[in-house]
Design a protein that fits this description.
With about 170 residues, the chain is mostly beta strands. Helix content is about 5%, strand content about 55%. It is built from one helix and 15 strands. The longest helix is centred in the middle third of the chain and has 9 residues, at about 80-90. The radius of gyration is 19 Å and the shape is elongated.
Length: about 170
């Protein structure tokens, strides 16, 4: 399989050959070739052996691509073909995520709203930290904070609903 990936503003052509029945693959990037064996440790956490060297990797899905953390460094990896298709398509309200959840396992470091607060789409709600990187989770829509399901210092994971928002209802009268 061939992929065109965007990593740190650079577009890279990658060819991947998966081994049948084994948890291994061969990656070709330009003239370089990498032999990779992999094992799932837990959700989004992999143990890799790349050309004989062992390392751990964490992969977190995000709204712009996949975030990959290896050796203390993070990378946003995007599939160029999917980016092009995504830009060509208009977003509808149904495509907007309606949950405030972290993109990766993290620790809550700041809560920026209280229950009952009126918020606007894109307004910061909760700040989480993972691997020395802070991320501000924002309101997916205009509305009111109905419930806060977390506290400062709490460990959270993708799928945990940190803040519940009652969407603003508009009348067309």
């Amino acid at each position: 399989m061939k992929y065109r990936l965007k990593i740190a503003e650079e577009i890279i052509d990658v060819e991947v050959a998966l081994s049948e029945g084994e948890r291994s693959a061969r990656f070709s990037i330009g003239e370089k070739e990498y032999h990779v064996r992999y094992q799932d440790i837990c959700l989004n956490n992999l143990h890799l052996i790349v050309n004989g060297k062992s390392t751990a990797a964490f992969v977190a899905p995000g709204d712009r691509g996949k975030y990959i953390f290896v050796n203390g460094r993070s990378f946003l990896v995007q599939d160029v073909d999917l980016l092009t298709a995504h830009r060509a398509r208009r977003h509808s309200l149904e495509e907007t995520p309606h949950e405030v959840t972290p993109p990766m396992p993290a620790i809550v470091v700041r809560i920026m709203v209280e229950e009952g607060d009126v918020v606007k789409r894109g307004q910061g709600l909760v700040v989480v930290t993972a691997m020395k990187m802070e991320t501000t989770l924002v309101a997916p829509s205009n509305g009111m904070v109905a419930k806060i399901n977390t506290s400062i210092g709490e460990k959270v994971a993708p799928g945990d609903i940190l803040v519940e928002i009652e969407e603003e209802v508009t009348k067309d009268d």
